[in-house]
Amino acid sequence: MAKKKAHLLGFVQHGVNSHATGMWRHGRDKINWDWTRPPYWEHLARTMERGYFDAMFIADELAPYNNWKGSSDETVRYAVQCPVHEPSTIAPIITGATTHLGVGVTLSTAFEHPYSMVRRLSSLDHLSGGRIAWNIVSSYSKSEWDAYGADMTQRADRYGRMEEYMDLCYELWDSWAPDAIVADRDSGVFADPAKVKEINFEGEYFRCRGRSFVERSPQGRPVLWQAGSSDRGRDFAAKHAEAIFAVHPNVERMREYSNDLTERLVSKFGRAPQSVKRLYGVQTVVGQTRAEAEEKYQRIRECIPLEGALAWISGHFGLDFSRFALDDIVQNIEVPGIQGLFESIIYAKGGAPVTVKEAALIYAEGMGMPRLVGTAHDIVDQLEAFMDVGGADGFMLAATYTPGCFEEFVDFVVPELQRRGRLRTRYEGTTLRENLLAD
Predict the structure, then answer these.
(1) pTM of the predicted model, to two decimals?
(2) pLDDT higher than threshold 70 for residue 155
(3) pLDDT digits over 10-38, tens only?
(4) Domain range holding 35?
(5) Domains: count for the chain
(6) Percent helix, strand, coil in the chain (nearest 5)?
(7) Around Cβ 49, how many Cβ atoms within 10 Å?
């Protein structure tokens, strides 16, 4: 039986710091690189393509977290995913520097009309030659709603709105027939209006009358990514996504999630089990020896500021954790924010009690993802278990210090994956969808 090959995503933000708090002050972070300039992103992209990654996955947050003590001071003070640039602005830089690497951009449905969302994504898909994915999110953070001067909707309302949002996006993406462009110089006819449908959409949340302003892009529509974790969120992901991201602290939780997703795909939405790739978050620290890797890991942990970590979990989970003592147990706390990620903290110690302080520091390392620390051989052993036992189709690799963490993964872990037949040695197609959905 052929071994499953891993799909790889580099998980970053378009900012000074990604998903390991305090890395901006690490001695090996961005040496001689300026993250606000194209050369840094071009180098990062070429490194990932050299390692046969499917895509760079760009997360986003629309405003500095302000839950901790009712202020965003600590978010700013400790560079907790702040400052951050708009994610789609670097997509042309990344795809312009590479031939195969895709780009997944996180864009919220909360404050942008579907018409402009479709226009932006289709434009990027054209510019990249069909290498764009959209990570569909609904804004979960109080700070985002405050920044946009809007009242935060209830979770149930957000999913109903997102369903309608996607219905309109699909109609707009499909409004240009594949053969709509005539380009007849003699007659002067460029496009056949009969093959460019005018959308007349009247919904509960959105209205739209007009044709999509962008002709059909190479992929037709971007690859759709999602990270649903609640019951309603998992249904949304199983219905719409081509790749689903999840953070689980161990192989047992991965397996449970994989089985649940398969059940939803087949029984609720009539989709084939392998029509959606399951990509689980991991964070790797690789060394020539285990001792070297452990030493590097300890240096990463030493960079984390406790108040910055507390500000982050307060923002992500929608709760001001300053209301609790550092030794309070998080299993006894209800959060309104991202449920799946909170579960990654609850099970971070195998179900044993986790204090608020422990939760903050664990989360600040990499959102509760499994931390794989060791030699390339050690790390690939664990990745294989996540695939073979946990049901993973691939991994989103959370950044520590950059670009070094990705350079080290590509230089040391990628050859070991290839040696074991667990990673491609060439790209299968020309579009992101062709590469991502390949077995």
Answers:
(1) 0.94
(2) no
(3) 999 999 998 899 999 999 999 999 999 99
(4) 7-282+390-436
(5) 1
(6) 45, 15, 40
(7) 21
